[in-house]
Amino acid sequence: MLKHPFAPIIDKDSKILILGSFPSIQSFKNSFYYGHPQNQFWKILAKLFNESQPATIEEKKSFLKRHNIALWDMVAHCQRKNSLDSSLKDIELNDIEGLLHSYPNIAALFFTGKKAQTLYERSFAHLDIPTFYLPSPSPAYRAMSLEEKVQRWSILKDFVR
Prior knowledge:
By secondary structure, the chain is of the alpha/beta class. It is 34% helix and 18% strand. The longest helix has 11 residues, at 114-124.
């Protein structure tokens, strides 16, 4: 059984929560969220806010804080064979509801993949908070160009101003 290796990145000023499914094998190795070098997560956010792409963990944390963005994943524990969401088995969820109660300024949730959204809808649909699907930043998801993803992710800016 694998345990999620990172604490949520959140503080009292966070206005949105971006939820993935579970860190990739490369993210485990790089000790932070969206750590695969080909993952477009940080590139999308940098383009969205017209900033340089953060490189270090401290730069990434600072970027999120500056834009009032919280970050976590749906899965607390699971089994898996690879980094694909489809390989996640024996899933135990993080306490999303408890986190939201502790941080009442979170005004919306955003999912970076269908697996995260599906897991949320199965267990937390009763929560009264707007939710949005964002096209996956994963290197495995090539159905959409980077520019299209940035456009679709632009909804984030409606909540963090």
